[in-house]
Task: structure prediction
Amino acid sequence: MIIRMKQNITKKEYENIVKYFKDRDLEVKDASSGDVIVVGIIGDTTKTMDSDVYALPGVDTITRIQVPYKKASKTFHPEPTVIDVCGVKIGGGNFTVMAGPCSVENHDQIVSVANSVKQSGAHILRGGAYKPRTSPYAFQGLELEGLDLLMEAREETRLPIITEIQSEDLIERFVKDVDIIQVGARNMQNFHLLKALGKIDKPILLKRGLSSTIEEWLMAAEYILAGGNDKVILCERGIRTFEKYTRNTLDLSAVLAVKELSHLPVIVDPSHAAGKWSMVEDLSKAALAVGADGIIVEVHNNPECALCDGAQSLKPERFDNMMKQLKLIAPIVGKKIEE
Ligand code: PEP
Ligand code: MN
Result:
């Protein structure tokens, strides 16, 4: 951390600032030159809040050298993290495809979609049992029954399953029965939930919040990592911008940013980003080309009648075609799509 002092700082104020850091076992090095009074703070400053430092009389500006997300950062963990989900590897050159309906609706629907996405080469089955809907009157998901149906589809296809959790009270059940626990965009900063998920040993897919910066997203991942759970997968799912034509704006540069800053795998959700099925194939190709570690895509056997997100859901035939295209592109961009 580098602190530039105000020009009119008094000797007493300067000494007080130095004492503040020394009391916290940090080293203070003066790097002033001419009229510019600057000190460098050396050591672990992650516990030092900017707001506390700004409250010290004489402080003008603070520049952080170290990122505040120590465990998510590449600094002390340069090699990419690879997460094994029942034999499916996420990260490290693999392009993993998660696919399935937005929500689990009934036995035939989930088993039919599961069989078809498996046939097309998907590695993991998605399906929401607890749905975070804007309206309390909209379909909220089949809840525990949905989880049971998802488990039946796993039994039938042997595809590992991913589903969204919304509250801490379900953690025990999810740890027992789910292969990846999804934290939805709306819960990205539900810190109590994140802390609780930090204490378990289960892969977590952490979606980027609706309007979250990359730093806020990595700090949310840090909550899980700090608790001891090192199996975090990030998911870019589009962010809110002024644009209305698409449901969200897919921030593909976030994939590159995460790759520069973190060792964690990052996948893309083109379905919730675009909100339109017609864009899903091309955005998935773009995600592959930009270096994402995978995608999570909504597929429905009858999108016109889907209880949630039909407009952005691919029909199984289109998903199949997309998988063929992705398999052609993968080797060109140095990625592996396991059969
Ligand atoms: C979902 O994956 O079904 C979902 C609700 O996504 P998000 O949290 O990204 O909106
Ligand atoms: Mn959805």
Observations:
- The CA atoms of residues 215 and 256 lie 13 Å apart.
- Residues 107-120 form the longest helix (14 residues).
- The chain has eleven helices and 14 strands.
